[in-house]
Every structure is written in C-alpha cells, then in structure tokens.
Structure prediction request, 266 residues.
Amino acid sequence: MRQLRDLHEARGRRAQGRLLLEGTHLLQEALRLGLRPELVLATPLWLERHADLLQGLPAGVRLQPASAEVLDAAASTRHPDGVLATLPLPDAELAPAGALVGAAGPGDFVLALDRLQDPGNLGTLLRTALAAGVTRVWLAEGADPFQPKVLRASSGAALALPLERLEAAELRRRLQGLGGAMQLVATVVRGGQPFWELDWRRPTVLLLGNEGAGLADDLAALAQHRVTIPHSPAVESLNVAVAAAPLLLERWRQQLAPPSAERRSP
Ligand SMILES: C[S@@+](CC[C@H](N)C(=O)[O-])C[C@H]1O[C@@H](n2cnc3c(N)ncnc32)[C@H](O)[C@@H]1O
Prediction:
C-alpha cells in the first residue's frame, strides 16, 4: 500500500521506476499501446465485469483482487472505478538528455513546453499533441507528465508520446543546436504573424510558454518565426492548452489543404 501511495509523488515514481494507472480507461489505453503492467489491483466486481480485458493481459502480470476500501486507500482519486495498475515508466523518460538531437526527419514535429505548471493543461495539451501527429515532446521543467492528474487529463496520451523532461538550460542548448534542420516557431500572445500564414508542413519545433510568465525571452529570441492566434482584446491571452489546439492542428489541416503560395511565409 505504501509503495502504491508513493507513486502519487514524482519522487516515489522516480525511486520505483514505475507509475500508477487509475481506472479502466487508462488500463485499456496502456494495453492498446502494447505496454505491460506489472500489477493489476481490482475489486471482485470489476474482475467479474471485465473478463474480456483480463483475457488481453500479457502473461506474467500480477493480478491482485482487493476490496473497494483498499483501492480507495491506494488511489489518488476519491472513487477509483474498481481497478489500479502499475506500469514501468516509459523509456523516453529515462532516455539520456540529448539522445534524440540530430535525428530530425522530414516528418518531425516537436512540441517544446517551457515550464508548464498545471497538470490539467499539460494533459489536455498532450492529448491534442497526439491527435496532431506530434512526434516527440520536450518538457522543460514544470509538471511531471506521469502524475495521475496528467495521465487522466491526457486520456493516456502521455503514455503514447515520446516525452523527455529537460532542464531549461538543456532545452535552450537543444534549440540552439537545431541549425537549419527544423524551423523553430515561438508563440507570442501578440505581435506575431497570424499562425495560419506559416508553412507548418516543414520539420518544426513549436514552443509554448508558461501559464503565467509566457515563453522565456531567451527561448523566443532563438526562433525564426513568431506566431500569434489573433483574438479580441477583451482577454489578455488564451489558456495555453486552448492555444495549443489550433496551432498543433494547423499542420494537419495544411497537409490536407496546403496554404496558397502567395500567403505562405518564406
Ligand atoms: C497564458 S499564456 C501566457 C501569458 C503571458 N502573460 C504572456 O504575456 O505571454 C501561456 C502561453 O499560451 C500561448 N498563448 C496564449 N495565447 C496565445 C495567443 N493568442 N497566440 C499565441 N499563443 C498564445 C503562448 O505559448 C503563451 O506563452
């Protein structure tokens, strides 16, 4: 029980090298992605109702029946829906910093997040990133993507995307090292070119900023392009996860319907 509860915190996840999945949906997503839980803890009622899911469990997964009270005590949510599971931390979390630099390919689309704090924002954003075909995510400090709130808000997308957590200084080094291999696009709440004018089909690193402070000036200064989602002056800015949706999906849209040559940026 103590080990399970320790997985609510980043320190416990790091120490054990595993994360906690709460609820049927996240377990289904993990199995769909071919991930292998170590332990599945479930109430007798849940076990009775999910025979099909149990049949899909890889061999060797430890199945532990438990009372609803035990699940309540182990979960971070108030009322888990009858199942908890543990999973080894995905590999990208353990990848050595810099391992992916230089591997930019023609289809690469990197989302780089500067100190995103709110787990709900991060989870929502990761879900959209997966829908938009993002190929990797660089997380400079900020919220831990494997905490229960992020996993829930991302609907499992945090497990599907190659995520790397970096120090802010390491993100800066990486962006400086991109050279001409990828276009670096900074998002600014005003004064940038309208986002739809950019050619998003090129290999791209998209930079989004912190909820309060926005994008760090030194990171924004490295970008070849600064884009804005124009909106009414009635609000100062958009929520970062809301802003991410049109930006991330514009690449998808342009692949279906390229912008006309005269409106496209160089
Ligand atoms: C809540 S905003 C930060 C507001 C901060 N006071 C500022 O001035 O940058 C968080 C992030 O969402 C993105 N964002 C919000 N509104 C945007 C807009 N209208 N256009 C482009 N990006 C936007 C940017 O990445 C921004 O750094």
In short: Confidence is low (pLDDT under 50) at residues 93-104. The first strand starts at residue 18 and ends at 22.
